[in-house]
């Protein structure tokens, strides 16, 4: 699919990190972009920086997502590309014994459910709305639109404490081919990027020494990924009409250790 000024796109989690890098890459190509993000302050700042529009959006809510899609389409027209970067996680062991007291604590079920709802259900919620809108468009070169999801190395090599995050991201990987098959007759493609360790605001609490150690875990190149490299992959998945139903690792060949 050609990426140019005739295209409208939506990026969830677009106010920072991988999402913001994707917004910038799309805008550089002339695309009309709507940033979906929960944080109005960072969302408005990202919109001002990039020339995109900001639509406050909570991917946990049908009503919020529907309102954000309506605002984006009123401003930019029906989107042909969706990049889903909204998500998050926690770090809680499945069951843990306190070393001092011996007390045994378990992973709270509501916290497990929240991570799945934020990542998996939130992603799926946005895909359904985007797909329904894309189905109203006439095909261009045989296709109506493209959706890009974000998984994680944790989908296949979750570290200790990442049970919920691993499950949520593995579900995104697992549903990719099925959704591609569901939407194939409508000329809509869907792919997933499975990033490793990237230098994003989520890493801001790490010390320089920790960041260096994390980069050293990557076989080659021995560094953290740059958000622009994620954006480059996302745009290639939009451009290349034969990439469909795929999950592509973007991780410098790293395989995560237990901790």
TrEMBL record:
Keyword terms of this UniProt record: Oxidoreductase
Molecular function GO labels: oxidoreductase activity
Alphabetized Pfam families for the sequence: adh_short (PF00106)
Keyword Membrane appears in the UniProt entry: no
Positions of transmembrane segments: none
Designated name of the protein: SDR family NAD(P)-dependent oxidoreductase
Organism: Mangrovimicrobium sediminis
